[in-house]
Amino acid sequence: xxxxxxxxxxxxxxxxxxxxxxxxxxxxxxxxxxxxxxxxxxxxxxxxxxxxxxxxxxxxxxxxxxxxxxxxxxxxxxxxxxxxxxxxxxxxxxxxxxxxxxxxxxxxxxxxxxxxxxxxxxxxxxxxxxxxxxxxxxxxxxxxxxxxxxxxxxxxxxxxxxxxxxxxxxxxxxxxxxxxxxxxxxxxxxxxxxxxxxxxxxxxxxxxxxxxxxxxxx
Amino acid sequence: xxxxxxxxxxxxxxxxxxxxxxxxxxxxxxxxxxxxxxxxxxxxxxxxxxxxxxxxxxxxxxxxxxxxxxxxxxxxxxxxxxxxxxxxxxxxxxxxxxxxxxxxxxxxxxxxxxxxxxxxxxxxxxxxxxxxxxxxxxxxxxxxxxxxxxxxxxxxxxxxxxxxxxxxxxxxxxxxxxxxxxxxxxxxxxxxxxxxxxxxxxxxxxxxxxxxxxxxxxxxxxxxxxxxxxxxxxxxxxxxxxxxxx
Lengths: 218, 246
Ligand SMILES: Nc1ncnc2c1ncn2[C@@H]1O[C@H](COP(=O)(O)OP(=O)(O)OP(=O)(O)O)[C@@H](O)[C@H]1O
Ligand SMILES: [Mg+2]
What we know:
The complex is a heterodimer of chains A (about 220) and B (about 250).
Chain A: H1 5-45, H2 49-63, H3 67-80, H4 87-113, H5 116-124, H6 129-159, H7 171-182, H8 185-214
Chain B: E1 4-15, E2 18-29, E3 33-37, H1 44-51, E4 59-64, E5 67-68, H2 76-81, E6 83-86, H3 98-108, H4 114-127, H5 143-155, E7 161-165, H6 173-188, E8 192-196, H7 200-206, E9 209-214, E10 217-222, H8 224-229, H9 234-245
Helix pairs in contact in B: 3-4, 3-5, 4-5, 5-6
Bound molecules: adenosine-5'-triphosphate and magnesium ion.
Magnesium ion (MG) binds near residues 44, 45, 165 and 166 of chain B.
């Protein structure tokens, strides 16, 4: 078997377009996941039993079921309730809800990793719980959760290949389409892998860079 | 101003079924320095933590300058502004430089202007001898310097009472003196202070009264003279013979 480089080269422009869709789906999902995750993470440690319970149920439920199934539930399930969603929107919603749970756990871990004395010192000065969270706990937690957050972004970018199943023409789906035309599956999948790798590598560099920028010595 | 800076009536505190403070009563005058001594685990830290409401209580009353801190109408955040709390482990905020550690509470809690808060903060940093460290990061300071910054940070809120929980026990011996000197100066200036300490020398020299806590109960209260030279209670005598011989 020979490796057909020209088939790979010819596919690059299409794969590139697929990759931009992957970036858009992932980027929007992360934005949604961050909003949900920060709320869920805070709720997990908030001194209110009901909030803690709701948040913990959400996190357990999402982490205990496959993302693919969650995507199907949003895309095929919601229309049954009279809510017809564009595949792209459905994908972003499903992935955002999914990453919100993981980010929620990361945020909770970060908050809990800040020494208990920090909250006590802040409250002793008269700061409210919310002020102490905002000015003392969260800034320190942010610093500690950056590496885990980077891993979550990378995982989500890779998992975004699952939305190919609901006909979003992202990178994986684009690869599949090209293969049905050219039958060059080995070459095209190598090309797809390269594009994923370039994107995940870029994220890990960006995260490393911001870690350095934000670091303070303790 | 009420008659007492701190008034504790029949305080009871337990963790689950473990009774840690049992019917503790204490009154502290304005301008008075009270030292609290006692064995490890006797409840000294818990007592201080109850006084500013970090720990909830199971019985009794705590009044700070006449205000019952657990009364429904009382805002605990407000009460805490008037109580400076110094911890064994300093608890400086590591993500802020020294001056910002001080400025934070006056600005966020007292809504002071940034400029005014900085002026006041610098004044107190100078008072504890660390004016030149204003821009330093807490990680660049020695333990003694950190504790002095923590004291300055508390003072910047103009507290009515300062509480110290073994402020020097995490320090290298050579930096202990600097912290004790700052505390002595505060005492001389008339600050009301409640100090949990194992520095018997400090208690003897600076305190107006010494409180001996054993097993969650106040066993004996007296002047340093009475407690250290003629303790009436057998347990006080035993405790002192242990710590003073060491
Ligand atoms: N958060 C907590 N949960 C459960 N038990 C606690 C807690 N904090 C303190 N205790 C218990 O309360 C008792 C008194 O503790 P405390 O820390 O007040 O003693 P202490 O006199 O300050 O001792 P030390 O000199 O070692 O600091 C101990 O038996 C301790 O185990
Ligand atoms: Mg203690």
